[in-house]
Design goal:
By secondary structure, the protein is an alpha+beta fold. The protein has a single domain (about 1-120), classed as Extracellular Endonuclease, Chain A, CATH 3.40.570. Helix content is about 30%, strand content about 25%. It has a four-stranded antiparallel sheet with strand order 1-2-3-4, sandwiched between helices. A hairpin with a 2-residue loop joins strand 2 and strand 3 (about 60-70). The two termini are about 15 Å apart.
Length: about 130
């Protein structure tokens, strides 16, 4: 499932009609309540969740979307939309400010965009 998400993001990144720039931040959860109880070789922490946050810039317009993927098996019919959330929601779950270097007014706008709205979905084809 994560590989499919990676491939979708790579396609968005290659599509110059869609964006001028695509910013991507991603990682795994590291807080004590967001890691698996078992460790690899007894020492390597395994995240319970993997996350990705994207900011697309086209001209002077920015759009954002986040993804939070649980470390588990997903069936073939699972849609990426089911793990999509606003960057604001993702930051709350992670306890991090991911895009703090953007001007506050721009950051607040794209981080609040909900993937549940048709307008937001139109910026992310194939979602």
């Amino acid at each position: 499932f994560w590989m499919e998400l990676e491939q979708k993001v790579q396609a968005w990144g290659r599509n110059s009609q869609l964006r001028d720039v695509l910013y991507v931040a991603k990682g795994g959860t590291i807080r004590d309540d967001q890691v698996e109880s078992k460790k690899v070789r007894g020492v390597i922490v395994v995240p319970k969740y993997y996350w990705m946050a994207l900011v697309m810039k086209k001209g002077s317009t920015y759009h954002g979307i986040g993804f939070l993927v649980e470390h588990r098996f997903y069936g073939a019919n699972t849609s990426m939309r089911s793990v999509a959330l606003s960057i604001d929601e993702l930051e709350t779950k992670l306890g991090m400010d991911l895009f703090h270097n953007f001007p506050d007014d721009i950051e607040q706008q794209f981080e609040a965009e909900s993937p549940a709205t048709p307008a937001t979905l139109s910026y992310w084809p194939g979602l």
